[in-house]
Amino acid sequence: MSIRKAAMKSTLNQQIQQFYDASSALWEEIWGEHMHHGYYGPEGNRKTERRQAQIDLIEELLKWGLDEGTQTTKILDVGCGIGGSSLYLAEKFNARVTGITLSPVQAQRAGDRAAEARLSENVNFQVANALEMPFEDESFDLVWSLESGEHMPNKIQFLQECHRVLKPGGTFLMATWCHRPLGGEQGQLTDAERRHLAQIYQVYALPYIISLPEYQAIATRVGFNDIDTADWSKAVAPFWNLVIDSAFDPAAIFGLLTSGPSTIRAALSLGLMSQGYEQGLIRFGLLRGTK
Questions:
Q1: d(CA 158, CA 122)
Q2: What is the pLDDT of residues 106-154, one digit of tens each?
Q3: Top-level CATH class of 3-290?
Q4: Is the dihedral of CA 188, 194, 196, 202 positive or negative?
């Protein structure tokens, strides 16, 4: 890696860390422990309480990605946030779960939440880079990535690492922000679409996103088997309008004023994501593979 690329990667990691250090407490206060989309039925027309919709997304993802009766005892949660999925999966499967994040604030809060839930013996959290995971080869039965792939500056290296730490017979299960597929009638991204994405990248500390077919090609290249994908954009799209509505809650307004410029920018730019879904530019992609 060149010095310039290493510096860019380090700067991005710092931006991601600072964004989540600053915004996680406010998100938990307003939305709770799950820092991801909700699920509102296949067509996105199901009326569901917002926190339940986030739990529904976890359950629907497991139902989609794991065979019925699958036993998993060691799970890695890549991009664990404040431990929402980690604690949920630990209880559901009576499994040992390791969560990693770039944010020390998130790791500390996730650990505190594990202690409050009396799950500290089953769950541990650490600050680690998903592109250079501090784990031995073939360490986990399930590698879980719920909305962290979009933050990865090297998608190939990310999937290589997930494949490396997965046990033979284990499952990799990912949901991530994507842009629309390229080619066909729509062709390549237009200049307007690129500008729209560039604004999202700046606000949410993202390097870039890719299409779901590109993820599938990478998964094949790095050695995953039994690969399957799905586009759940309709099912999750209502989430962003609900987040926009919640931003007018008095507690949210007060929290924003004290949370720092990056969180305020993100709140003021929530419409970028809802518009992206409406235009078909932003997609919510799922990918599973085995080893």
A1: 25
A2: 999 999 999 999 999 999 999 999 999 999 999 999 999 999 999 999 9
A3: alpha beta
A4: positive
